[in-house]
Amino acid sequence: QVQLVESGGGLVQAGGSLRLSCAASGRTFSSSPMGWFRQAPGKAREFVATIAASGVTKWYADSVRGRFTISRDNAKNTVYLQMNNLKPEDTAAYYCASVRMKPTGWQNVDDSWGQGTQVTVSS
Questions:
Q1: For the residues of 77-101, what is the DSSP string, one character each?
Q2: Could you say which DSSP state residue 54 is in?
């Protein structure tokens, strides 16, 4: 299956911006919905955003809607997460994954996760 590598995280002040990238290798994901998730220490992994294979339809968690924008470039096998007006509560490790909708919500198609990229927002 597709291997995914996240990058672009870092340390930023509240109100700042970062753009995360998720690069795929091995296979294309042009026909796969893709999503971003995050996990803070001591908390469960949570859904952040999902983009349809076409890139036309997007879904966002209420906590990030209006601040984050998910996009994709299928020709480059890459999905992005533009993060604006960052808040300290956005601090987490961010992961991308091929996703599908289940009764409980958007979930990773696979049961495993990559290394993620760390986002730290200082106040």
A1: TEEEEEE-S--GGG-EEEEEEEEEE
A2: T
